[in-house]
Design goal:
By secondary structure, the protein is α+β, with helices and mostly antiparallel strands. It contains 6 helices and 4 strands, in the order ββββαααααα. It starts with 5 loop residues before the first strand and ends in a 5-residue tail after the last helix.
């Protein structure tokens, strides 16, 4: 059995994010990036080693850029990541863009709307629609910001707080931040660990529909 496909999520220009620091060597054309320097000492999650993730955990780490990555040598498996001694970036996932990130955020934000009540749901549907139109170049940035503010104000009661928060994040100024926060905060409306797992599985399926080019 071959190695599972692994991913590395980075900020703009290959800069570390999610608690890391420094910058990775980026792929050039069809050539992978250079191997990062080998890590000394014992591998420790969140402390020592290069951190990559598997497909099922990618949605938990979203940021501006996604890369397929590979490792060699020692690997330590943690709850939602793997820690390795040597790693490099193989290729950038070009389908993860400002547009697809925001559309994914909108898809996540729709999930808790059924708990919002009809009047609030109608307002939030309109807000999410504005975020989608902005992603497709059909709404202005001013309209997007106004939609985000409206969603924040709509989340005024516990009954639809999650729906308002996720709609607010779908209209966030930065698309990758919108995707990360919407995916995270939508979990606020699920009531059990089983429902949480089911929602994460749905998010992963939808995310990879965008990354694999199956959803435009």
């Amino acid at each position: 059995m071959g190695k599972p496909k692994l991913y590395k999520v980075l900020g703009v220009g290959g800069k570390c994010c999610n608690g890391g620091h420094g910058k990775w060597h980026l792929p050039k054309g069809n050539r992978p990036g250079k191997w990062m320097p080998a890590i000394d000492g014992e591998l420790e999650p969140c402390d020592n080693g290069y951190h990559l993730c598997r497909k099922k955990h990618l949605v938990e780490w979203l940021n501006a850029e996604i890369y397929e990555a590979e490792y060699r040598g020692e690997i330590l498996r943690a709850s939602n990541k793997v820690v390795v001694r040597e790693a490099r970036l193989v290729r950038r996932v070009e389908t993860w863009t400002e547009r697809t990130a925001r559309l994914f955020a909108c898809d996540c934000a729709e999930r808790p709307l059924k708990y919002a009540g009809k009047r609030s749901a109608d307002i939030l549907i309109s807000i999410i629609d504005t975020a989608r139109r902005f992603a497709n170049g059909e709404a202005t940035r001013e309209e997007l910001y106004a939609a985000g503010s409206a969603a924040y104000n709509a989340a005024g009661s516990a009954a639809h707080h999650a729906a308002g928060r996720t709609a607010h994040h779908a209209a966030d100024r930065a698309a990758h931040y919108a995707a990360s926060c919407a995916a995270y905060h939508v979990i606020g409306w699920v009531a059990s660990c089983a429902a949480w797992d089911a929602e994460r599985r749905w998010q992963t399926r939808r995310l990879f529909e965008y990354l694999d080019g199956k959803r435009k």
